[in-house]
Amino acid sequence: MPKRLFYTFILNPAADKGRAASRAGWLKGLVSQRKDAVFMTTAFSGHAEEIARSASADSACLVACGGDGTLHEIVNAVVGTDVAVGIVPIGSANDFLKTFEPRRCVKQDPSFSFGSDTRLVDLGGVSVGSGVTRYFVNSLGVGLTGRIARVVKKNRWLKGELGYVHALLRVLVGYKPLKMHIKITQDDAIIELHESVFAFSISNGKIEGGKFLIAPDALLTDGLLDICILKSIPKLDFFRYVIKYIRGTHINDTNVVYCQARAVEIFLYEPEVMHLDGEVFEGVQGSVRVAVRPLALKVLMDASGLNVE
Ligand SMILES: Nc1ncnc2c1ncn2[C@@H]1O[C@H](COP(=O)(O)OP(=O)(O)OP(=O)(O)O)[C@@H](O)[C@H]1O
After folding, report:
1. What is the CA(173)–ligand 1 centre distance, in A?
2. What percent of the chain has pLDDT over 70?
3. ipTM of the complex model
4. Whose CA is nearest to atom 31 of ligand 1?
5. 69 lines ligand 1 (CB under 6 A)
6. Which CATH number covers residue 226?
7. Which residue did the predictor score with more confidence, 108 or 279?
8. 184-202: per-residue pLDDT in tens?
9. β-bridge mates for residue 225, sequence order
10. 11, 12, 212, best to mutate for ligand 1 pocket (most atoms within 8 Å of CB)
């Protein structure tokens, strides 16, 4: 049956530390000119996912108006359906869009052009123990970056790069590398590591934390996830790696394992913090299985023809 609406816009007014709320008037103005679109606002964390689950019965495209967290919730509501997601980038980082359509990441002047062309992108599926699978569209981090994401989220004032620098410094105090067992499954090899790990991430997009080029070789459509493991290093050395992460040159470092795979399993001996697209999951322990779900998400492309890979 044809859907009644084409677009449902879902605004997270709390995105960008509450600054996204100031875009409500502009978004309502956009939507009010059309018969095929409606506008909704979230009232609490997790609400975008609830709205998206009910709206997906009626809409062909759900537009995430916020940052990566808003997109993450909507993606998890539509995965497995034919509903597309669109993006109005008014969050702090909007890291997914930096890979998908980098030219649209102009925060001062966000745009949305009504179109219907979509591109399929991969997703990463994550299951902890026997729990349900949750999906990330941009990146997953365990340990250091999970803890940084937790501090960034709790901080109500500092946004953008300042927020990440503040969080990094706070997390580094008292931080110890994590003991992990990692099993990376590639087409022609299995890599097993029993390591103390300083930082661990799995990426679909290239950028994490606003400006860190964690996965310079990542492509959203290659059916692969990019794994980046920084082995145990002296804590003070990490500042050198921050510069390398910004430039993407860490992947050639002898302390870094960087590779691509379709599936990864990690075993965490102690409860840890994990982030998926910047959303924080506490107390993750035991077996964490991650597998790519190739071309599983339809993403609306900018109709102005500015798309680049
Ligand atoms: N009405 C609301 N009140 C409070 N929190 C909300 C509300 N709606 C959504 N949230 C939460 O706001 C958080 C931040 O959203 P989001 O990640 O989109 O913005 P951001 O952090 O500025 O962007 P980015 O992740 O790109 O840096 C998410 O965890 C989301 O669950």
Report:
1. 26
2. 97
3. 0.98
4. 45
5. yes
6. 2.60.200.40
7. 279
8. 999 999 999 998 999 999 9
9. 261
10. 12
What six digits make up the tokens of 236? 């003070």
Q: Which domain holds residue 14?
A: 5-116
Same domain, 105 and 168: no
What span, in angstroms and rounded, lies between the C-alpha atoms of 246 and 148?
Answer: 16
Best probe residue, ligand 1, of 45, 75, 159, 281 (max atoms within 8 Å of C-beta): 45
pTM of the predicted model, to two decimals? 0.95
Q: Mean pLDDT, to the nearest integer, of 29-51?
A: 96
pLDDT number for residue 162: 81
- Could you tell me the sign of the dihedral formed by the alpha carbons of 158, 233, 98, 149, in that order? negative
Q: In the chain, how many domains are there?
A: 2
Q: Which ligand 1 atom sits nearest the alpha carbon of residue 13?
A: 1
Ranges of H-type helices in 125-194: 144-154, 160-172
Q: Determine whether the shortest distance from the Cβ of 68 to ligand 1 is under 6 A.
A: yes
In a domain, 306, yes or no: no
In whole angstroms, what is the distance from residue 53 CA to residue 50 CA?
A: 5
**Helix H segments across 155-218?**
160-172
Question: pLDDT category, 309, cuts 50, 70, 90?
Answer: very low
Q: Residue 259 C-alpha to ligand 1 middle, in angstroms?
A: 31
